[in-house]
Specification:
The protein is an alpha+beta fold. It has five domains: about 60 residues, Alpha-Beta Plaits (2-Layer Sandwich), CATH 3.30.70; about 120 residues; about 90 residues, Calcium-transporting ATPase, cytoplasmic transduction domain A; about 160 residues, Rossmann fold (3-Layer(aba) Sandwich), CATH 3.40.50; about 120 residues, 3-Layer(aba) Sandwich (Calcium-transporting ATPase, cytoplasmic domain N), CATH 3.40.1110.10. Helices cover about 50% and strands about 20% of the residues. The strands form five sheets. A seven-stranded mixed sheet has the order 14-26-25-24-15-22-23, sandwiched between helices. The longest helix has about 35 residues. The chain is elongated, with a radius of gyration of 34 Å.
C-alpha cells in the first residue's frame, strides 16, 4: 500500500470534502481517502498495482476540483485572487444597492438597465464558479454549498428579471443577488486569509532550511542551491548561518540552536563526530560537516511530513459533522421549498416567498461544520511542533485527551538509558586505582556496562594501562594481565565459581542489588580487589511528570523486561505503584490489551524496542533524541527525551479537543437558530449571507486563538 497527499483546489465546504472522499473510495485499489478542508490536502491510501496517480487525479477533477503540485501552489497568490474578485464585486454591487434603494424607479433614464447590467456581470462573471461547481455536482447527483449559493442567488436574480421585463413592477431583487455574491466572496477571502495564518507552522518550518549553502568542491568553497547538495558533500557553516541538511561534523566546534527541532531553548555544544540537523542555527563557531541525509530524507523534512499527515487526518469527533453534512444540503433544499410554498399558501405574495426561501438557502451553507475540526487540528499540531511535540494523526490527539491509563517503559523512558557508575568499593582504599584497572580491562570490551566505567575514568582524568592476554568469558566477565598481575572483572557468580571470598563486601553487594544496581567485582591474582556498582539513573523530571499525571487522575503503570528488583526500585523512585517486571514483548502486548478494556491507554516508550507496544496502545508516545527519530513507532513523537513533554502533549490534546467541541457547538447552533429565523422571514437574504460568511470566519478565528495557549 502507498500513501500520498494531493493538493486540491476549489473546495468550499464539508459537502465538497465528502464528495471527493466518496468518489475516491469507490475506486478499485483505494483503501482509504481523507480530505482536509483547511489544508486542502487529500490523503489517499491505495495499491499502486491496481490504480495509478493519474487515475486518482482524474477522479478528483471529474467532480470540478483541481489537483495541483504543492510546489506550484502559492496560497498567498490564491488569497490575492479571491480578494480581487471580492473587490471587483463590491465595486459593481455598490451602485446596484444605491440605485435600488435610494433612487426611485423612473427617476432618471436607464436606471433599471444599469442595475440589470451590473447585477448580471456579478451573477455570471464573478459568480460563474458557483454554477460550474453546481453543474458538476448535479451530474453525480450530489449537492454542496455552491448548490445552495447558486440556487439562492439565481432565485433572486431571475425573479428580478421576470419583474423587470414581464411583470413590469418597479421593485426588483437585483441588489439581493449582487450583495449575496459579494458577501460570500468576502467570506471566502477572510476564510482563505485565516487558513493562511493557520498554516504558519509548516510555512515557518519550510523556511528554516537555507535556500543556499557553502560546499567544498575541488578544494574551494562554492555556494550552491540547497537542493543540489548530495550525500557525502562537505558543507561549510559559518557563525549565524542555518544548517542546510543532516550530517556529521568532521571539523570544528560550535554551539547550535536546535530549538526549532527539539523545543530546547539552550544551544547545544557540538564537536567533531556530533550530528547536526537541517534547519538548526550555528550560533558560535565555524565548522564543516559531511552531508548524510539530504532533500526529503532530512529530519526537518520528516517533521513537515508528520505535521501535514496529522493535519490531513480526522479526529473521531468529526464523524458527527460528516454524518450531518451528508444529509444537510438535501434537507435544506427541502426546507427552502417548504418555506417558499408556505409563504405563498399564507398569501404573503411572491416577493416575500422568494426572499424567505433565498435566506434559508444562503444561511444554511455548511462551511463552519467542515472547518470546525481541521482548523483546530491544524493549529494544535502546529503549536505542538513548536514545542517539540510531533502529532502524526488526529485520532491520537483525541485519544490522548481521553486517556485514563499511562504505561511507561523503564530503560530510556523513565531512566536515562545510559548506565553510570554509582558506587566504588576498593579494599585498598584507592578508588581511582580500582577504577583505572577496570578501565584498562573494559577498554577492550564491548559490554553495555563498559561505557559506564570508561566514562567515569575519563571524567577523572585517568589513563589506562596496557592489558595483555585479554579474554572475554561470555556471561561471566573479562580477564587480562596488567603489569604482570592477573586481573578479573565480572559478575558475583563468576567470582564465587573462582572461589574468591566476597565476605568483606557481601553487605554492600546485597544492598546494591536490592536497589536494582548491576555489580562488577574486580579480583587481582585471585584475591578480591574491589566492587563497582552501575545503575541506569532516573531521568531528570520523571518524578515530577509522574506526579502531574497522577494529579490529572491518570493510572500509572511501569512495564519492563528487566528483573523485579531493578524495576521495583526504579518504580519506587519515580512514584509508580503498578509494576510488572520480566515481561516478554508478547506479554507486554497482552497486558496493554487488558488495560485498554478498562479505559483509553497510552504507552510511552523510547520508540525503538517498544514499537509493538506503542502500536498496540490507543495512543503511542515515542521519546526521541531528535537526531534519529523513530518516527514510525508512535502516534506522537517527542523531540526531547524529557517526560515533561508528555504533560504538555496531554494539555495540548485537551485544549485542541476543547476548541473542536466549541467550533462544532457554534456551527450547529448557528444553523439550528439561523434556518428557522430565515424561514420565518426574520432574516433578509443579505443579512443571512453576512451571517453565513462570518460563521466560517469565526470558527477559524476561534481555532487560531489556540496559538496563544500555554501548554
Amino acid at each position: 500500500m502507498q500513501k500520498q497527499l494531493f493538493k486540491v483546489k476549489g473546495m468550499h465546504c464539508e459537502s465538497c470534502v465528502l464528495l471527493i472522499e466518496r468518489t475516491l473510495k469507490k475506486k478499485p485499489g483505494v483503501t482509504d481517502a481523507v480530505v482536509n478542508l483547511t489544508t486542502e490536502f487529500a490523503s489517499i491510501t491505495y495499491d499502486p498495482a491496481l490504480i495509478k496517480d493519474r487515475e486518482l487525479i482524474k477522479a478528483i477533477e471529474s467532480k470540478g476540483y483541481k489537483v495541483v503540485k504543492e510546489a506550484e501552489y502559492n496560497r498567498e497568490k490564491e488569497v490575492k485572487k479571491i480578494g480581487l474578485r471580492f473587490l471587483t464585486s463590491a465595486v459593481l454591487a455598490l451602485p446596484v444597492v444605491v440605485l435600488s434603494m435610494f433612487a426611485a424607479p423612473g427617476s432618471f433614464a436607464f436606471r433599471e438597465y444599469i442595475i440589470f447590467g451590473l447585477a448580471t456581470i456579478i451573477q455570471f462573471a464573478l459568480g460563474w464558479e458557483f454554477y460550474r461547481n453546481t453543474f458538476v455536482s448535479l451530474k453525480s447527483l450530489d449537492t454542496g454549498m455552491d448548490t445552495l449559493v447558486s440556487l439562492g442567488t439565481s432565485a433572486a436574480y431571475f425573479y428580478s428579471v421576470y419583474l423587470m421585463f414581464i411583470g413590469r413592477e418597479g421593485h426588483s431583487y437585483f441588489e439581493t443577488s449582487a450583495v449575496l455574491i459579494t458577501v460570500i466572496l468576502l467570506g471566502r477571502f477572510l476564510e482563505a486569509r485565516a487558513k493562511l495564518n493557520a498554516s504558519d507552522a509548516i510555512k515557518k518550518l519550510m523556511d528554516l532550511a537555507p535556500k543556499k549553502a557553502l560546499v567544498v568542491r575541488e578544494g574551494k568553497e562554492v555556494e550552491i542551491i540547497t537542493n543540489e547538495i548530495a550525500a557525502g558533500d562537505i558543507v561549510v557553516v559559518k557563525p549565524g548561518a542555518s544548517v542546510a541538511v543532516d550530517g556529521v561534523i568532521i571539523d570544528g566546534s560550535t554551539s547550535v540552536d536546535e530549538s526549532m527541532i527539539t523545543g530546547e531553548a539552550m544551544p547545544v555544544e557540538k564537536n567533531a563526530g556530533d550530528h547536526v540537523n537541517a534547519g538548526t542555527i550555528n550560533t558560535l563557531g565555524y565548522f564543516r560537516f559531511k552531508a548524510q541525509k539530504v532533500g526529503d530524507e532530512t529530519t526537518l523534512a520528516g517533521i513537515i511530513r508528520l505535521i501535514e499527515e496529522a493535519q490531513g487526518s480526522k479526529a473521531p469527533v468529526q464523524r458527527l459533522a460528516d454524518k450531518v453534512a451528508s444529509i444537510f444540503v438535501p434537507s435544506v433544499l427541502a426546507i427552502a421549498l417548504i418555506t417558499f410554498a408556505g409563504w405563498l399558501f399564507a398569501g404573503a405574495g411572491m416577493s416575500s416567498a422568494v426572499s424567505a426561501a433565498v435566506a434559508v438557502l444562503v444561511i444554511a451553507c455548511p462551511c463552519a461544520l467542515g472547518l470546525a475540526t481541521p482548523a483546530a487540528v491544524m493549529v494544535g499540531s502546529g503549536l505542538g511542533a513548536k514545542n517539540g511535540i510531533l502529532i502524526k494523526n488526529a485520532p491520537a490527539l483525541e485519544n490522548l485527551s481521553k486517556a485514563v491509563n499511562f504505561v511507561f517503559d523503564k530503560t530510556g523512558t523513565i531512566t536515562m538509558g545510559k548506565p553510570a557508575v554509582c558506587g566504588l568499593i576498593s579494599l585498598s582504599g584507592d578508588d581511582d586505582e580500582l577504577l583505572r584497572m577496570a578501565y584498562t580491562l573494559e577498554n577492550n570490551s564491548g559490554h553495555p556496562l563498559a561505557g559506564a566505567v570508561i566514562d567515569m575514568a575519563k571524567d577523572r582524568g585517568l589513563i589506562a594501562d596496557k592489558a595483555e592476554g585479554f579474554k572475554a568469558i561470555p556471561g561471566k566477565g573479562i580477564q587480562g594481565l596488567i603489569g604482570g598481575s592477573e586481573y578479573s572483572l565480572g559478575s558475583t557468580g563468576w567470582m564465587e565459581e573462582m572461589k574468591i571470598d566476597l565476605t568483606p563486601v557481601a553487605r554492600e553487594i546485597s544492598s546494591y542489588e536490592a536497589g536494582g544496581r548491576s555489580i562488577m567485582v574486580l579480583a587481582k591474582n585471585s584475591r578480591l580487589a574491589g566492587v563497582i556498582a552501575v545503575e541506569d539513573p532516573i531521568k531528570d523530571g520523571s518524578e515530577t511528570a509522574i506526579k502531574n499525571l497522577k494529579d490529572m487522575g491518570m493510572h500509572i503503570y511501569l512495564f519492563s523486561g528487566d528483573s523485579q528488583p531493578a524495576v521495583k526500585y526504579m518504580a519506587e523512585k519515580a512514584g509508580i505503584e503498578n509494576v510488572l517486571a520480566g515481561l516478554s514483548p508478547g506479554q507486554k502486548l497482552s497486558e496493554i490489551e487488558q488495560l485498554r478494556r478498562r479505559g483509553v491507554t497510552v504507552m510511552v516508550g523510547d520508540g525503538i524496542n517498544d514499537a509493538p507496544a506503542l502500536a498496540k496502545a490507543d495512543t503511542g508516545i515515542a521519546l526521541s533524541s531528535g537526531t534519529d527519530i523513530a518516527m514510525e513507532s508512535g502516534d506522537i513523537v517527542l523531540m526531547k527525551n524529557n517526560l515533561g513533554l508528555v504533560i504538555k502533549a496531554v494539555n495540548l490534546s485537551r485544549l485542541t479537543l476543547r476548541k473542536i467541541r466549541q467550533n462544532l457547538f457554534w456551527a450547529f447552533i448557528y444553523n439550528i437558530i439561523g434556518i428557522p429565523l430565515a424561514a420565518l422571514g426574520l432574516l433578509n437574504p443579505m443579512l443571512a449571507g453576512t451571517a453565513m460568511a462570518l460563521s466560517s470566519v469565526s470558527v477559524v478565528t476561534n481555532s487560531l486563538l489556540l496559538k496563544r495557549a500555554k501548554i
